């Protein structure tokens, strides 16, 4: 791949353009908002000038509802040898293109499983996709050259290619992305009119659950409008679980001992199923989840504190597998939780204590 055209310079499009430009690909940028394309160009993502002729690959980074229109226009103008889109829904756009009678040999639907709560070119980064799955949905009609161009794009972005059927992909993202986003928003909505005294008690648990609820509602309306059926099916199942859980909690309020016992059993079953599902979430580098030990360190809210901790861990020969920060409400302090291999926990604890860090059990 020597040349590419990115149509849509939001977070995903600009991030892909930055990654391609860094690998020596000449990238042209286009957007319905010329100012946004100019912003992406100023960030080093390419040029907002039109290419002289057909490029090797056109990357359509438009909302799901607009993908078919943008692709049909680009294919009609012959702007590239190959065409892909990066929308989060795959079945619908392809069926729309088929209904228009387009030859889809030069097209493959893709979806990089990566993003941020922020949108737009200013949120973009060349390493956004690094180590993340990038779904490709070829069919028997897909030209081998186009598939190879898509794989080259994934490689340049340092992502991990995953080949799936388009409709299977849509059901999968409904489960692991679209439905969780709505549930997160529903939990966060409980806080909108909550008493201030209650909100001040928010800890890391509620922050984890509601983090993705901060995303742009307009973007998510587009996504959910393109995949409503699978998401609705999953929420129906969640609603049934909620009804069972409410009944179990009400039973725990009963004066009848048998009902309380039944309620406790119901709650225990919900928690057990949650444990069973959570352990299936892939761990580091997509591997099976591993059990780490946590070393908790109290830090001041001062510049350089995290860098010092990681440097001290490195001097002790300990690799930090994951990290979480729990901020103390109303205080200039926080708790850094360093996840390490169990055999390394004692070594790290001793090393950090020796260097003056306050360890919390």
Question: What's a quick, concise take on this entry?
Answer:
The model has no long low-confidence stretch (mean pLDDT 91). Helix content is 48%, strand content 17%.
Description:
A 7-stranded mixed β-sheet has the order 2-1-3-4-5-6-7, sandwiched between helices. Strands 9-10-8-11 form a 4-stranded antiparallel β-sheet, covered by helices on one side. The protein is globular and about 70 Å long. Helix 1 links the parallel strand 1 and strand 2. By secondary structure, it is of the alpha/beta class. It folds into 3 domains: 162 residues, 3-Layer(aba) Sandwich (Rossmann fold), CATH 3.40.50.720; 107 residues, 6-phosphogluconate dehydrogenase C-terminal like domain (6-phosphogluconate dehydrogenase C-terminal fold), CATH 1.10.3660.10; 68 residues, VC0802-like (2-Layer Sandwich). The termini are far apart. Helix content is 48%, strand content 17%. The protein contains 13 helices and 11 strands. Belongs to the prephenate/arogenate dehydrogenase family. Pathway: Amino-acid biosynthesis; L-tyrosine biosynthesis; (4-hydroxyphenyl)pyruvate from prephenate (NAD(+) route): step 1/1. Its EC number is 1.3.1.12. GO terms for molecular function: prephenate dehydrogenase (NAD+) activity.
């Amino acid at each position: 791949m020597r040349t590419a055209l990115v149509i849509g310079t939001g977070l995903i499009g600009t991030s892909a353009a930055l990654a391609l430009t860094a690998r020596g690909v000449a990238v042209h940028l286009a957007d319905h908002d010329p100012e946004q394309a100019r912003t992406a160009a100023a960030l080093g993502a390419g040029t907002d000038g039109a290419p002289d002729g057909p490029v090797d690959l056109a990357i359509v980074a438009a909302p799901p509802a607009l993908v078919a229109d943008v692709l049909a226009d680009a294919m009609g103008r012959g702007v590239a040898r190959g065409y892909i889109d990066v929308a989060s829904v795959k079945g619908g756009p392809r069926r729309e293109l088929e209904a228009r009678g387009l030859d889809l040999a030069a097209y493959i639907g893709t979806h990089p499983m990566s993003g941020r709560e922020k949108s737009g070119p200013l949120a973009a980064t060349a390493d956004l996709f690094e180590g993340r799955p990038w779904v490709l949905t070829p069919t028997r009609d897909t030209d081998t050259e186009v598939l190879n161009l898509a794989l080259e794009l994934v490689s340049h972005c340092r992502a991990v290619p995953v080949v799936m059927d388009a409709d299977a992909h849509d059901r999968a993202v409904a489960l692991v992305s679209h439905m969780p986003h709505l549930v997160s928003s529903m939990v966060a909505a409980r806080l909108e009119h909550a008493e201030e005294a209650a909100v001040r008690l928010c800890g890391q648990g509620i922050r984890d659950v509601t983090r993705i609820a901060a995303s742009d509602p307009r973007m998510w309306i587009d996504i959910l409008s393109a995949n409503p059926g699978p998401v609705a099916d999953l929420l129906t199942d969640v609603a049934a679980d909620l009804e069972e859980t409410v009944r179990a909690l009400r039973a725990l309020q009963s004066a009848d001992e048998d009902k309380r016992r039944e309620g406790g059993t119901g709650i225990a079953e919900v928690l057990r199923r949650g444990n069973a599902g959570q352990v299936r979430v892939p761990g580091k580098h997509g591997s099976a989840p591993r059990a780490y030990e946590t070393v908790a360190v109290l830090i001041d809210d001062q510049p350089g504190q995290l860098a010092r901790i990681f440097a001290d861990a490195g001097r002790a020969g300990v690799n930090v597998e994951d990290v979480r920060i729990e901020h103390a409400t109303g205080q200039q302090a926080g708790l850094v939780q360093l996840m390490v291999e169990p055999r390394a926990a004692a070594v790290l604890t001793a090393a950090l204590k020796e260097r003056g860090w306050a360890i919390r059990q």
